[in-house]
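Explain my protein.
***
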Amino acid sequence: MRDAIEARVEEARARGLDPLEFLTLLIDDELARRDTEGVARRIHKARFDEVCDLRDFDWTYNPEIPKGRVWDLASGRFIDAHASVVLCGPTGVGKSFIAQALGLEACRAGQSVLFVKTSAVLTDLAGGRADGGYQTRVRRYVSPGVLILDDFAMREYTVAQTEDLYELVSRRHRRGSLIVTTNREPADLYPLFPNPVLAEGLLDRLLNSAHTLTLLGRSYRRRQRPSAPETAGETAPGCDAFVSPQRVLPHGRMSPARGCCLTRYLTVTCLMIAVSGRRGRPCVRTQTRPSLRPDTGPPQPKRGSRGWPLGPAQPDRGRGPVG
């Protein structure tokens, strides 16, 4: 109020307002300031991954998404009825975005909101079983007016995790709203729980009191894929192994990578010419190449079985005359 009082005094003098009208302006300013700070405080406590607004959602990318039903949920009537919302669909179609956008509208309407991954909730409750603070941690997820469980039923659950989810859903049933995002159809959720009795009780409370929306279409993450670099020109002949495609910079200059590769190619060519001596003469390296055969010295004469050299006429000294 102190920040706006000087401006309001000048306005009251210019418009000739009476004291009651002047006081009304100051009260309206203070209420607007408190409302803005309250919304910012609730958004901070909600712990959104990102602050999403339905006005920023691209409805033309996936026309199959029911725009009318989403905007109807943004009015907040399901919160007043303590109903839930289940957003089903493949990965990347915008389930988490819409869930957080509905949470943002709830913050603007004065509701307390908490956004959390389902796996993080189960990890926190498992820690509560270990340190004795289980009930305190459960109340942390039961107290908000709107609880958003993202990535629900991503994998099969254990018996303890099934009991934790049952405890959470049953205590929030008809007492607060729950927004759930999942990649599975509602009928595919039952086999994920090992205890069929707990699964039936949990999903009966969740699905039969929820607005179920199936979101179909392409993944928005494809639009975030980095584009391939543009290439132009041809590579220099003989250096395809290490020369990248030519890229031309402004004012007709060559890119540093292209100039470096071309310099390397010319350097290798000059070294080859220098080694060969002159064009047409065999390379010095081939003339001085060592023989692959071992160096055995001068040729040795052939020898017989007793080590004597084999000549043209050798006497047979091994036996006497035959007779």
